[in-house]
Amino acid sequence: MQNSATPTHCPYCALQCGMNLTATPDGTVEVSERADFPVNRGALCGKGRTAPAVLSSRVRLTSPLVRSEGTLVPASWDEALDRIAEGLSRTRTEHGPDACGVFGGGGLTNEKAYTLGKFARVVLGTSQIDYNGRFCMSSAAAAGIKAFGLDRGLPFPLEDIPKTGCVILVGSNLAETMPPSLRFFNELRENGGTLIVIDPRRTKTAEQADLHLAPRPGTDLALALGLLHLVVAEGRVDEEYVRERTAGWDEARAAAMAHWPEYVERITGVSVPQLRETVRMFCEPESAMVLTARGPEQQSKGTDTVGAWINLCLATGRAGRPLSGYGCLTGQGNGQGGREHGQKADQLPGYRKLDDPAARRHVAEVWGVDPDSLPGPGRSAYELLDALGTDIKSLLLMASNPVVSAPRAAHIEERIKSLDFLAVCDVVLSETAALADVVLPVTQWAEETGTMTNLEGRVLLRKRAITPPEGIRSDLEVMHELAARLGVEKGFPTDPEEVFEELRRASAGGPADYSGITYRRLAEENGVFWPCPAADVDESEDACLDARADDDPAQDDDTAGAVHPGTPRLFLDRFATPDGRARFVPVSHRAIAEEPDDDYPVLLTTGRVVAQYQSGAQTRRVDELNTAAPGPFVELHPRLAERLGAAEGDPVAVVSRRGRAVAPARITTTIRPDTVFMPFHWPGEGRANTLTNPALDPTSRMPEFKACAVRVEAVEAVES
Ligand SMILES: Nc1nc2c(c(=O)[nH]1)N[C@H]1C(S)=C(S)[C@@H](COP(=O)(O)OP(=O)(O)OC[C@H]3O[C@@H](n4cnc5c(=O)[nH]c(N)nc54)[C@H](O)[C@@H]3O)O[C@H]1N2
Ligand SMILES: Nc1nc2c(c(=O)[nH]1)N[C@H]1C(S)=C(S)[C@@H](COP(=O)(O)OP(=O)(O)OC[C@H]3O[C@@H](n4cnc5c(=O)[nH]c(N)nc54)[C@H](O)[C@@H]3O)O[C@H]1N2
Ligand code: SF4
Ligand SMILES: [Mo]
């Protein structure tokens, strides 16, 4: 055990707040303020502050478990690993490699995500790998690639926010989901800038806003088109910018002109004067930003919706200019890096495309395999989970809890139960791990070193601060052992830095180029923004990316004098498209996949509360957080409650075409009367995902978590 404080980062969300950890003599771990990390300057939310509680053996897994006569019982590592290797081999022999599935998570470090993608393609030879990030920001990623040729959460550091003129925050409740980031928005307003929040609920974030628009869930696309219509009608288009830096305006303009403000008001419920006020606040200052989060993205038209918001930025000259731009607030700790290095169905490391022959050749060479041996793109997350038990017979799952977090969860739970074989690596016995044939207990954030890429595209080093308990192994050790048992002795190192060195080479020359980043640099600098090519890599392809670092890069690296500073701000000179121009996408409003009707007259939307994280697998094991957020609830407007005859705290049933969930009523005027809201952090009868609609976005394959049709019923207390 080390007794001095180790500077490291939080295990949870995409802010990756800096913190100091100290091991105490009595075996616990203390969190203290780490003021030097610019994202949070020492501030932490309750989840980060209490994160060490999950390191305790009281709540975590302490031994491998194998299923014996129906129950999970402790077993040795050898027995557990042998069982997994046997299960996967048998499936491969009997049904072919694509009958083995792999499901990863955006909480995994870059090293683990990279190794998991390599494991699937090289060891198992399967195309069937995807991860929970598909449920997260995939629509924004798809839209960013279409418009800018590159997807990185924010194209600028958070510290630019206070200096811009106006921010439109679309479907983000960052006061609860990233509390320390609220500081940047408070500073924005102190500096005279304005904040507009778009959310069907008057959230804690909306309460901070100068203007709050509360559209009907699932109508953000129409809203953005209505704003663009007004921008054109009021003569606010930046014609010179559009001419010089974009392509495709005529089609996008024509599509927007079909969305008259009055028509948009009817669809969204946002009044024409509010639309006009939004346009005025956004267009008058010299610079402005649009930031989206899950509200507009988790829709079956999420890609088009984000595209429409990007169109608004492009038409007004607010992208690729200082203090202006479109950004996506990513979600999980490594939601960004997790989608760059190969655990996504269609991707190879460095954000390369799996169906690009040159990318396959490059990565195959780094891996020492024949490019033709690499499988092609596989299914997206929901489609993969939906194929369990039919096309996919065995699953290796690392860092996700789909029994709670997948849409149409009762169906997915059935699919998981119908597998021939399920292996889960986790730190706790999650609801999904509890269904496994083998469960492996793995080391956690504070017990292992690895890199994470936060929402700004800042690659940072999360350092090991304490020694893991006896009997626990890391995900990298697990993959090393499984590869060896499946006949691949080399290429799966257990040392994270060794993996990172290989990742650097694999990513070199790709869009997310990490080749100029080293552990040593990360330890010295407060993170490095990608792309960061190595000095000896041809930089001609990177002319589109403006490398204006705020801080002087460390000049004492091995390649002194030629160290790339990293790229805090993207697109300032050109976009990452072949001709350097951003692309408008012509998009038109369309309805959500399941509109309310007589049987299901109310809209359900879902999301988060400040004290629980995701499926709750970790945070539901922390007493302080459970006291703050003990269980699910249904947020509804007094008018709807009155119709049901439900009082505050009464159990109410929410019923959709997929199932029924029951939770106490929380009655509030902060929600639209036509909408109910449920957080998704809990399993059991209050599980929000029993209800949600897996209708997928055609491009990103994102499910429609944010809008489906339900009916709400009063429940006799005894029944609950
Ligand atoms: N406390 C906490 N923090 C977290 C997480 C957590 O689980 N708990 N998870 C992390 C992760 S992975 C993520 S992805 C982020 C998510 O961060 P956010 O996107 O901020 O979180 P959500 O609560 O899912 O959704 C945000 C808001 O969208 C609104 N909304 C619902 N439907 C619509 C709609 O149709 N249009 C619009 N405009 N808004 C809509 C909801 O009312 C909600 O207030 O948070 C990260 N941080
Ligand atoms: N209705 C509804 N559903 C949603 C959403 C919504 O807004 N509404 N949001 C979606 C979004 S944005 C997301 S990101 C998903 C998230 O949902 P999940 O994918 O279920 O995410 P977590 O609950 O974070 O699950 C992570 C699991 O990995 C474990 N774990 C943590 N670190 C490690 C590690 O290093 N190694 C291993 N092996 N395990 C680890 C944790 O203990 C936990 O069991 O939920 C989605 N589901
Ligand atoms: S805001 Fe996110 S990164 Fe920061 S302490 Fe909370 S959970 Fe951790
Ligand atoms: Mo997420």
Instruction: Write out the distinct hetero groups bound to the structure.
Output: ligand MGD, iron/sulfur cluster, molybdenum atom
Given as residue ranges, the uncertain stretches (5+ residues, pLDDT < 50) are: 537-560
Report the portion of residues in β strands.
15-25%
What would the principal axes of the Cα set say about the shape? globular
Helix content: 25-40%
Number of strands: 30
What is the distance, rounded to the nearest whole angstrom, between the alpha carbons of the first and last residues?
A: 48 Å
Overall radius of gyration: 24 Å
- What's the arrangement of strands in the largest beta sheet? 5-4-18-17-16-6-7
**Averaging pLDDT over every residue, what do you get?**
95
Main pleated-sheet profile: 7 strands, mixed
Structural class: alpha/beta
Q: Total number of helical segments?
A: 22
Molecular structure report:
With 720 residues, the chain is of the alpha/beta class. The two termini are 48 Å apart. Residues 537-560 have low confidence and may be disordered. Bound molecules: ligand MGD (2 copies), iron/sulfur cluster and molybdenum atom (MO). The site of molybdenum atom has 4 residues, from loops.
Give the helix/strand layout.
Layout: E1 6-9, E2 18-23, E3 29-32, H1 46-50, E4 65-68, E5 71-74, H2 77-95, E6 100-104, H3 110-124, E7 129-131, H4 138-148, E8 166-170, H5 174-177, H6 182-190, E9 194-198, E10 211-213, H7 220-233, H8 239-245, E11 246-247, H9 249-257, H10 261-268, H11 272-283, E12 289-292, H12 294-297, H13 302-315, E13 325-328, E14 347-348, E15 352-353, H14 357-367, H15 381-386, E16 394-398, H16 402-405, H17 409-417, E17 421-426, E18 438-441, E19 450-453, E20 458-462, H18 475-485, H19 496-507, H20 519-524, E21 528-529, E22 582-583, E23 602-607, H21 623-628, E24 634-636, H22 638-644, E25 651-656, E26 659-667, E27 675-679, E28 693-696, E29 703-704, E30 708-714
Parallel strand pairs: 6-7, 6-16, 8-9, 8-12, 9-10, 11-22, 12-13, 16-17, 17-18, 23-27, 24-26
Antiparallel strand pairs: 1-2, 2-3, 4-5, 4-18, 14-15, 19-20, 20-21, 23-30, 25-26, 25-30, 28-29
Helix pairs in contact: 2-18, 3-18, 3-19, 4-13, 7-9, 7-10, 7-11, 7-13, 14-19
